[in-house]
Structures are given as structure tokens and as C-alpha cells.
């Protein structure tokens, strides 16, 4: 007599990033859930700064400086992203309020949104007093681009 052995079906591995069962990504919820990571990053940054002060080795100092620079850049990028998200949410709230009052909703084009962001950046630079240096850098950059675009002129 043969005994039939039944094997369980093989488990299918799934990647939660691309699977619908994991839900959809909501940045606000993600920020709230993992807000403790900001504290961890801040502590790590302080530890790296202390190590940098204690370090005598030049190579180690360079590595720590690069790491510190990268961490500050990531913080700045996160701050910008957060500010951008807050601005878009505020605009959406404003449009909902206007819609409730009976007005027709107005949706900004990407170019219009960029113009608003640029205007806000100029306001912030003006407050901090760095507007003039920013504009000078921008002028120099544009001048060098213009020089490159000009056709090559021979001296006769």
C-alpha cells in the first residue's frame, strides 16, 4: 500500500514595496510613524562631530567631514521636501475652502508651482540677507553659459 504524502504549497515571497497588500505610501503617515529616526540621526551627528574634534588622523577627519556634510545635506533635502509638501497641502486646503463657497477650483500647473516656490525662496533669502550674493552667483553662472553658447570668434 502506497501512502500519499502531501506537501504544502511553496510560499511565494513578495516585495512589500510593490505589493498592494502593504497599502499605499503616504508621506505624512510615514513621517509620523518614523519621526523617532530624526532624533537618532541628530544623536549620530553629535557623535560624529565629537569624533571629528578628537580625531588626529587626516584620512579619518576627511571621512568624518564627508559623512557630516552628507548628513547635513540629507537634513536640508528633507526640510525642503517637507516645506514643499506643506505648501501644496495649504494650497489644496485653500482651494477646498473656495470650492465650499461655490467658487470654481483652480489647479496650478507645474510651472506655476515652480514660480511660487522661487518667489518664496527669494523671500527667505531676502530675510536672511543672502539675496545679493545669491543673485551675483546666478549672474556669473548665466554669463559663463552665455559665453559658451557664443560662436567661436577668431582674432584677425
Summarize the model shown.
It contains 5 helices and no strands.
Description:
It is extended and about 95 Å long. The relative contact order is 0.04. The mean pLDDT is 89. 69% of the residues lie in helices and 0% in strands. The chain contains 5 helices and no strands. It holds the Pfam family RRP36. Keywords: Coiled coil, Nucleus, Ribonucleoprotein, Ribosome biogenesis, rRNA processing. Belongs to the RRP36 family.
Q: Which H/E pattern describes the elements?
A: HHHHH
How many helices? 5
Strand content: under 5%
Cα shape? extended
| Strands, count | 0
* Biggest β-sheet description: none
Helix share, percent: 55-70%
Beginning-to-end CA distance, first to last residue: 105 Å
Question: Quick check: average pLDDT?
Answer: 89
Amino acid at each position: 500500500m502506497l501512502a500519499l504524502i502531501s506537501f504544502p504549497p511553496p510560499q511565494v515571497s513578495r516585495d512589500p514595496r510593490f505589493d498592494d497588500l502593504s497599502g499605499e505610501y503616504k508621506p505624512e503617515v510615514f513621517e509620523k510613524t518614523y519621526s523617532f529616526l530624526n532624533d537618532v540621526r541628530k544623536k549620530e551627528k553629535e557623535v560624529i562631530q565629537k569624533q571629528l574634534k578628537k580625531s588626529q588622523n587626516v584620512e579619518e577627519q576627511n571621512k568624518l567631514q564627508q559623512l557630516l556634510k552628507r548628513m547635513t545635506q540629507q537634513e536640508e533635502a528633507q526640510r525642503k521636501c517637507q516645506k514643499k509638501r506643506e505648501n501644496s497641502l495649504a494650497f489644496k486646503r485653500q482651494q477646498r475652502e473656495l470650492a465650499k463657497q461655490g467658487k470654481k477650483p483652480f489647479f496650478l500647473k507645474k510651472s506655476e508651482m515652480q514660480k511660487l516656490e522661487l518667489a518664496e525662496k527669494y523671500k527667505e533669502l531676502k530675510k536672511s540677507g543672502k539675496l545679493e550674493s545669491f543673485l551675483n552667483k546666478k549672474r556669473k553662472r548665466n554669463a559663463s553659459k552665455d559665453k559658451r553658447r557664443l560662436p567661436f570668434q577668431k582674432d584677425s
